[in-house]
Amino acid sequence: MKKNMNEIRIGDLVLHTSTPSLGIGIVTQIDLEMWGHHHEPEGVKVFWNNPTWHDPTDGSSVMYRDEVEVISEAR
Question: Cβ–Cβ contacts within 10 Å for residue 44, how many?
Fold first, then answer.
């Protein structure tokens, strides 16, 4: 069963919906304010095995929630 995008949790394994070449990622942060704007959809931080962009401090990429699909839920 597909999870509602509002139910993404830290530790979920995800796929990028439009760039599958990123591979599988693991969610490391949730409920991020995107670009300092309250009107933007919330974001998540994902550690990808093949990132096209990543934060040099932790290696994760900030994504909008609707850009990822949960493939395995965290326990």
Answer: 26
Given a contact cutoff of 8 angstroms between Cβ atoms, the answer to whether 7 and 69 are in contact is no
**Cβ atoms within 10 Å, residue 48:** 22
The secondary structure of 42-75 as a DSSP string is: PEEEEEESS-SS--TTTS-EEEEGGGEEEEE---
pTM greater than 0.90: no
Q: Which residue has the tokens 């994504």?
A: 63
Share of the chain above pLDDT 90, in %: 37
**The CA-based dihedral angle spanning residues 20, 26, 31, 36, taken in that order and rounded to the nearest 10 degrees:** -60
Q: Is 22 helix (H, G, I), strand (E, B) or coil?
A: helix
Q: Tokens 């490391």 map to which residue?
A: 28
